[in-house]
Every structure is written in structure tokens, then in C-alpha cells.
Write a structure and sequence with these properties.
With 514 residues, this protein is an alpha/beta fold.
């Protein structure tokens, strides 16, 4: 099985690359996905995404014990199907802030240089103040069809405490509050597989293989990547390039299993080193989330989403509570005037969202999530034999806990604003109404969870810690690139779906012109 390009992973980035590269009929492209097809109803139904967690559509990762978080192991869901995590996420399209990309300080990756790639991907349906969004791309970006009444109250409450309302969330600055733009087409999830992969699958020069887990990258005697080996022993060769789009866990894992990484650590894991690249697996970042959970005084929340009436509204008209993405509104804030841009995100859900949504709510409630946008803590991905070890090292930097405490205070202030008084009641577990910084610190460490945005483990750069160069080529390994969120040098002040799509759109141009 020989192709020009072999892409590993049919997640957000892999779907973009499969489409863009196979648009040239003279090249042969193979896309290999470890998971299966994306046909399950819960993938299409927006509010049902948490029902996909811990199923065969999920890699079902667990972190190493976190010393700064009461010794807990945290659950990390990641998509294992066509579309990857875009098939199991909350569909939020949040590019981030201009400062995010300018701070990467890399040629070709400033905000002004990457903006056209965001716009190339976007098909905005609905408001587009100032022409912020692209309108001709493959990826639908729409407004929620049936936003909850409490979501509208949350946005009014934000304004009452001094957080300005944004006309469009995805402009150069996202400081302020907004209803969340979502990747939906008329109330159905619109994943990267829907947008990019399915339209390309009829092309004779594109081969898509599911249930094809890659075990390692093949390197010739000169150290050039020539293909990949799958778990069943099959080899797929690449005449031009192998492209890893396996995500911030899978891509560094495959590099290390192929002998690319820190030599001493590779030997300790039983892998023979082939190329020394110490940065592989390091620089792991994630958006950590805590929350204020309160009883809702009115029976209007998503706790009643699965009633017969709501199921009928969804099936017959693609409307109602089941079209909710759960995270219906956001506010990006600075906790002190000294912050150059937002350091905390408040994320509103008209439901008590605990245990990743896997435990049905015990009653009506609301959640004001608090997300640390640019953590100073850094973790890593390593190997234990052929298994991956994920250690995000949450809250090991003192500034991170300080910002989280300030964020929880702001979330509580918003929840007590006049607009939410008809809805916000007493605290719901695991949240506790505490005021002392030490008690809030304890709450954060005992109950915070991932917001599902790991990044940085194959860092793009020109320094000693870099894994890929600004053209996303693995340094010192010809014929091999990494294209996914793992190349981000710093997390964006937003969510990672939008920048991952942008990175892949830009990578397609880089590959075609190389």
C-alpha cells in the first residue's frame, strides 16, 4: 500500500488535510483512523455528547496522579472515530485573542497571517457583524437554535457586573460576553468529518481506513520517514510525507514509539532511540476548569431535555433542548488590570454539569464554569512500555491557583447579579459556598477537571525545546510532519477546535508548496 501522503488520525486536523491534499487528483492520499465510523445518533444530537464518553468512540485516557490536586487521577476523553474530538465535543467555535498568535512570535503565524485560514474554514450562518467570519468555507458556524432562558439571563448578569456584551465573539479581541457560536447545521452537530472528509471520500485518490491503529513511523537507514506500521503488522508507505495528526497525546506517543525523543527516556521505556529530540512530549498544557453550581429555582433547565416532548421537537424539527451544546454562553475576563488580555473564561451551562455530564442531574441547576486560559504550569507525555503516561502537572505554578481563585469569585459575583436572582438558588454538590481564599483553594484542587483542550506536546518553534519548525516539519526527520493541537507553543485564550482547523488549513498550503 503506497501513497504520496499518509495521514495518521482522522480528527479535526486529519480531516482537513485529507480534503485539501486529495483535491489534487495527481496525488494519492491515505487517511488512517484507529477508531470506527461516526454513525451513532448521539454524535449528531448536540446535547448528547457526554453519552459518548467512556464508549468505543473515546480513547478514555486517565492522567497520572496530580500532587497539586489532592492526588487525583483525572479522566480525559478524546475522540476515537471519524472527526476525532470534533465528533464528541461541545461544538464551541472560539478562535481566541489576537495576542495569542502574535505571542507565538513565529514567522507566518501572527494573528494577521493566520486570520485568512480561520476564514477559509468558516461558513457562518446568522449574524456576521463587521464581516468577522468567512462565509464560503466547509465548516458551519451558527447560533444556537433554542438557547435557554437562563442563558439569556446569564448574559444580562454579566453586563450588570461590568462585562461588556460582544457583537461577535471571534473578532480580534474576545474580552466580553457572548452566546457561544457552534459547529451545527440546523441543529445537528457539524464535525470536521462532516465538513471536510465526507465531501472528499468519493475521490478515487483518497483512501480512508478505519480501525487502523498505527504502531510506529517507519524510518529508513538515513532517518527519513517512509511510512507507518499498523497494529496488525501492515505497512503503509509514503512517497512524499507522513503526517501525524493523532492529537496532543497520540502524536508524541507515536514519535516516541518510533524512537524520536529523549534517548534516555526512550531506552527506559524499552524503545531504541533513532533521533534525539528532547522536546517530544514536553510543554503539555490544558485548560483546567472549576465551577460554581447552583440550584435553579425554575424548572426550565436541560435537566428536562430528555422528555418525550423535547425528543419529538428534536427529531421532527431539529429544535428544542437537545440542540443545546450545553456550554451556551461564555465571558472572557481579566482578573486584574495588569493582565494583557483575558486570563479567565466563564462558561455558562443551563444544567448542573458535574462528572463530565455522565451522571444525570439530580434536579434543576446551573453551572458557571471557571477556566484558566493560559496556565503557567507545564506537564508532559511519556511512555511506560508502549503505553502513554499523561502528567499535566496541574496547578504546579502558583499564579495558576491565584487566577482560579479570582475567577471563582467573579463567577459567584455574576451568579448573584439581579438578572439571575429569579433562577440562582443554593449551592449544588460538589460546589460549596465558601469565601475564604484557603477554602476556595481547597475546592479548586478537589473538584477541578479538564476542559478537554490538551496542547503543546510537539511544540512548534526555533528554540531547543521545539519539536517541529514553523513549517510543521519534525526537526531532523525528513518526510515527517505533525499537524494538530500538539504543535501550539502556547494555549489560546479560547478553545482548541478553531485553531486546530486553522493550523491544518495552513499546513495544507505549506505541504503543497514544499
Amino acid at each position: 500500500m503506497e501513497y504520496d501522503y499518509v495521514i495518521v488520525g482522522a480528527g479535526s486536523a486529519g480531516c482537513v488535510l485529507a480534503n485539501r491534499l486529495s483535491a489534487d487528483p495527481s496525488v494519492r492520499v491515505a487517511l488512517l483512523e484507529a477508531g470506527g465510523a461516526d454513525r451513532r445518533m448521539e454524535i449528531r444530537m448536540p446535547a448528547a455528547f457526554s453519552k459518548l464518553f467512556r464508549t468505543r468512540y473515546d480513547w478514555n485516557y486517565t492522567t497520572a496522579p496530580q500532587a497539586a490536586m489532592s492526588g487525583r487521577r483525572l479522566y480525559w476523553p478524546r475522540g476515537r472515530t471519524l472527526g476525532g474530538s470534533s465528533s464528541i465535543n461541545a461544538m464551541m467555535w472560539v478562535r481566541g485573542h489576537r495576542a495569542d498568535y502574535d505571542a507565538w512570535d513565529l514567522p507566518g503565524w501572527s494573528y494577521d497571517e493566520v486570520l485568512p485560514y480561520f476564514r477559509r474554514s468558516e461558513r457562518r450562518v446568522g449574524s456576521n457583524h463587521g464581516g468577522v467570519y468567512g462565509t464560503d468555507g466547509p465548516l458551519y458556524i451558527s447560533e444556537l437554535r433554542s438557547p435557554n432562558v437562563v442563558t439569556k439571563a446569564f448574559l444580562r448578569a454579566c453586563e450588570e457586573v461590568g462585562i461588556p456584551r460582544l457583537e461577535e465573539l471571534n473578532g480580534p479581541s474576545n474580552e466580553g460576553c457572548s452566546q457561544t457560536p457552534v459547529n451545527q447545521d440546523r441543529g445537528h452537530r457539524w464535525s470536521a468529518a462532516d465538513a471536510y472528509l465526507r465531501p472528499a471520500m468519493t475521490r478515487p485518490n483518497l483512501t480512508v481506513r478505519t480501525d487502523a491503529q498505527v504502531r510506529r513511523v517507519l524510518l529508513d537507514e538515513g532517518g527519513r520517514a517512509t511510512g507507518v506500521e499498523c497494529g496488525d503488522g501492515r505497512r503503509v508507505t509514503a512517497a512524499k510525507e507522513v503526517i501525524l495528526s493523532a492529537g496532543s497525546i497520540g502524536s508524541p506517543q507515536l514519535l516516541m514509539l518510533s524512537g524520536i525523543g529523549d534517548p534516555d527516556e526512550l531506552r527506559a521505556a524499552g524503545v531504541e532511540p533513532r533521533h534525539e529530540l528532547p522536546g517530544v512530549g514536553r510543554n503539555l498544557m490544558d485548560h483546567l476548569a472549576s465551577a460554581v453550581l447552583l440550584e435553579c429555582l425554575e424548572p426550565v433547565t436541560l435537566a428536562r431535555a430528555e422528555t418525550v416532548g423535547n425528543i419529538a421537537r428534536y427529531l421532527l424539527g431539529r429544535k428544542g433542548m437537545l440542540t443545546s451544546n450545553v456550554g451556551e454562553a461564555v465571558a472572557f475576563i481579566r482578573t486584574t488590570p495588569d493582565e494583557p488580555a483575558p486570563d479567565i473564561e466563564l462558561l455558562f451551562a443551563p444544567v448542573p454539569f458535574a462528572d463530565h455530564g455522565m451522571t444525570p442531574p439530580s434536579g434543576h441547576g446551573i453551572t458557571v464554569g471557571v477556566i484558566l486560559l493560559q496556565p503557567e504550569s507545564r506537564g508532559r507525555v511519556t511512555l511506560d512500555g508502549d503505553q502513554v503516561v499523561i502528567d499535566p502537572c496541574y496547578l504546579t505554578a502558583e499564579a495558576d491557583i491565584r487566577r482560579m481563585i479570582a475567577g471563582l469569585r467573579k463567577a459567584r459575583e455574576v451568579s448573584q447579579a439581579p438578572a439571575l436572582k429569579p433562577y440562582a438558588g443554593a449551592a449544588m454538590a460538589p460546589y460549596e459556598e465558601v469565601d475564604d481564599d484557603e477554602e476556595i483553594d481547597r475546592l479548586v484542587r478537589r473538584h477541578s477537571e479538564t476542559l478537554y483542550h490538551p496542547a503543546g506536546t510537539c511544540k512548534m518553534g526555533i528554540d531547543d525545546d521545539a519539536v517541529v519548525d514553523p513549517s510543521l516539519r519534525v526537526i531532523g526527520v525528513p518526510g515527517l510532519r505533525v499537524v494538530d493541537a500538539s504543535v501550539m507553543p502556547m494555549l489560546n485564550r479560547g478553545h482548541t477546535q478553531a485553531p486546530t482547523i486553522m493550523i491544518a488549513e495552513k499546513a495544507a498550503d505549506l505541504i503543497k508548496t514544499s
